[in-house]
Amino acid sequence: MADIFRQNGSPFAVSFETNIAEVTNTLDHTQKWVVPYAASTALSRAAYDARLAEMQKIAGIFDRPNPLTQKSVLYAKATADDLTYRIFIRDEASRGGTAPARYLRPQVKGGGRGPKPYELLLRRVGVLAPDEFTVPARGAKLDRYGNVPASVISKMLSNLKARRDVGVMQNTTARSAARNKRAGGAVYFAITEERRSGLPRGIYERSSRGQVRAVLIFIEGAPHYRARYDFGQAAIAKAERAFFGHFARAFTDMVNRNRKAA
User: Fold this and answer.
1) Which end of the chain is more exposed for a tag (fewer CB within 10 A), N or C?
2) Has residue 103 been placed in a domain?
3) At 59, is the secondary structure helix, strand, or coil?
4) Which of 93, 101, 118, 95 is nearest to 12 (CA)?
């Protein structure tokens, strides 16, 4: 009943279809019309079950996945005319973010990750070299999902003049730094030459009290990941167990309703 397929080279789509010819041949003509509708209902219900199974797998594999990752598994329902449904990972990004299908790809296939949106902006203004990436510094404050908070990234880009509408990199000026200090806020700055400062190349935070700590460290080459998420396997197993029960219930319900209507 199930067949996994790739679309446009993506490893994030599982297609299920059912062959109902054998079932149809055992029925009389008054019941045959029910089969495709019952099958589409059963497939769609199995798709929902399969989605939940895949979401549970994500929660079990990854450490504190954020809500976007957790809910990135989507499904397309079957119809009576097309007895096929799909389970897939969202390939659209939220505002200013990265599409789950993109950042989960290294977890499925292994290999290096692509640049994050803020890394592209840092490259654009010359803070990062074209072949450089960032990793959280040891001891950096992370959110409950293990990431540098979005509010920190936003302020960091603002301090470094690395917004999308700015074309030239310019570190925080003395005037803006003083303004931040008076307001009690932190200031973010980049160290791009390690020899002069004695600190690793990266982005640092200076608190209103003058304390400095690293937030992001620059590295050459993309961080690499081992393949650990076999997307689709949980969905296939769940759907194959659930489909026939859903089909039997949907078929019986439709036949009974038809008899009552008659």
Assistant:
1) C
2) no
3) helix
4) 101
